[in-house]
Amino acid sequence: MNTVQIVGILNTTPDSYFDGGQYNALSSALDRAKEMRAHGADIIEIGGQSTGPGSKDVSLDEELSRTIPIIRVIKDSMPDSILSIDTYVSDIAKEAIDAGVSMINDVTAGRGDSKLFAVVAKSDAKLVLMYAKDATARTTIETREYDDVIRTIHDFLLSRIEEAKKQGIEESDLIVDPGMGHFISAEPAYSFEVIRRLQELTTLAPIFISPSRKSFLAGPSNLPPEDRLPATIAASIACVNNGASYVRTHDVRETNNALQIYASIKRAQ
User: Fold this and answer.
1) What is the rounded CA–CA span in Å between residue 4 and residue 149?
2) Which of 54, 65, 186, 201 is the most buried (most CB within 10 A)?
3) φ and ψ at 74, to 5 degrees?
């Protein structure tokens, strides 16, 4: 089994679908970052605006105020911590890199801000390119249909990789995310198919994936996000089994424990 890195989600937003409003203050955000680090997070990802269905646009100043101070506080408190920022805005990415972030996670794969690739190219940061059915960061609740969902995602990500390379980003700094849930379609079957066939995307770049408590895990009982932890763990293990290199999660301790047991089982073979 390849080494898997756990990316702990730290949303400093009031409207994120699972943890919105919990870590808006510097003190609570720092405490959460320390907790996730203690529980096994390899990377902590800060997000300053929600991109889920129904989310609202956030001004540049608001996103800056939600993210840059906590990045600085975390780096001051834990200088060796590896940080990522969930943003598609070039000005946010630049400020975050200057503050110590070494990964940019762009849900638009460079479509949301044409200057983002240039900012990353001038840095040593890694860039996550994510597939999304919508061209903007505001994903919609739509049942998109696919003839071959993996082929569609593969071809999209390949085109974005080529564009990023044209703008000066090293191939070794690129990571791909196939998207999950509503980023693919309101039909859960497509997300399950992506997980099942994830290995087919590993020829592109290392795989970054985030099934964490997303709507496609609600099941026939339509479970709310707070009841989707068992499904999240099951999906995360399946992703790793099928080639994921990064698993992004709200539940670092539980995901880390599950992946350690999974690794022990694989070693025992």
Assistant:
1) 25
2) 201
3) -65, -45
| Tens digits of residue pLDDT in 189-216 | 999 999 999 999 999 999 999 999 999 9
Question: Which CATH number characterizes residue 34's domain?
Answer: 3.20.20.20
Instruction: List CB contacts of 21: < 8 A, sequence separation 6 or more.
Output: 13, 14, 15
Residue located via tokens 């293990």: 237
List the one residue out of 229, 215, 223 whose CA is nearest residue 181: 215
- Token pair 């996670």: residue: 105
CA dist., res. 101 & res. 45, Å (int): 9
In whole angstroms, give the CA distance from residue 190 to residue 152: 11
Do residues 52 and 18 make contact, with C-beta atoms less than 8 angstroms apart? no
Q: Determine the pLDDT at residue 181.
A: 93
- The first and second tokens of residue 122, run together, are 């001038």
Residue corresponding to tokens 């770049």: 205
10 - beta bridge partners?
Answer: 46
- Look at 269 and 11; give whichever has higher pLDDT: 11
Q: What phi and psi values does residue 245 have, to the nearest 5 degrees?
A: -100, -25
- Summarised one tens digit per residue, pLDDT across range 109-151 is 999 999 999 999 999 999 999 999 988 776 778 899 999 999 9
**pLDDT given for residue 242 in this prediction:** 97
Provide the pLDDT for residue 57.
Answer: 81
Range of the domain at 86: 5-268
In sequence order, the 6+-apart residues with CB closer than 8 A to the CB of 200 are 150, 154
Alpha helices (H) along the chain: 26-38, 60-77, 90-99, 116-121, 149-166, 188-196, 229-241, 252-268
Query: Cα–Cα distance between 269 and 154 in angstroms, integer?
Result: 32
Q: What is the pTM assigned to this prediction? A: 0.93
- Report, in angstroms and rounded to the nearest whole number, the Rg of the chain calculated over CA atoms: 17
Q: Where residue 240 falls among pLDDT bands split at 50, 70, 90?
A: very high
